[in-house]
Specification:
It is a single chain. By secondary structure, the chain is an alpha+beta fold. The chain is 17% helix and 40% strand. Strands 1, 2, 3, 4, 5, 6 and 7 form a seven-stranded mixed β-sheet that branches. It is globular.
Length: 151
């Protein structure tokens, strides 16, 4: 069993809208379907940029151009330490073809995201990415990385 893993998250933008996807988690929890951004595990030998492109293509069928990293996060679960990198990505198409792991998708304006996404961790993602604020993502200028404290 690996002791470390790297996740990549794609915050996919097309014009003024952002892609959110609905994923099934577990029928033993109160809200088994949850809206979020696309994420997945980086594979051995991939760069983070290639990994996020692959994950988005596999899960949503959309080719993307990776613009820049937005923030990082990390957590430990059991004996596995996970770190993640979130990227802003520009969609090359609006046509979404979902993988079997996802049940729904939608393109949402910045102000609609918090109404669609109820998962508090994803709301933190939105805030870290600057999507809930009045400034534009370009206001980040040089890449600002946010690091979540490990629990």
């Amino acid at each position: 069993m690996d002791k470390f893993r790297v996740l990549v998250k794609g915050i996919v933008q097309c014009g003024d809208r952002f892609l959110a996807v609905e994923r099934w988690y577990d029928d033993r929890i109160m809200d088994p379907y949850q809206w979020e951004f696309i994420d997945g595990e980086m594979q051995f030998g991939e760069t983070p940029e290639k990994a996020v492109q692959r994950v988005i293509e596999e899960q949503a069928g959309i080719p993307v151009q990776v613009e820049k990293p937005l923030y990082t996060w990390g957590f430990t679960a059991g004996e596995v330490c996970t770190c993640g990198i979130a990227f802003l990505c520009d969609a090359q198409s609006e046509e979404v073809v979902l993988s079997e792991d996802l049940s729904n998708s939608g393109w949402y304006y910045r102000e609609e995201l918090e109404k669609v996404i109820s998962n508090k961790a994803v709301i933190k993602d939105i805030q870290h990415a600057g999507l809930m604020n009045q400034f534009d993502l370009d206001d980040f200028g040089k890449v600002d990385l946010f690091i979540e404290p490990m629990d």
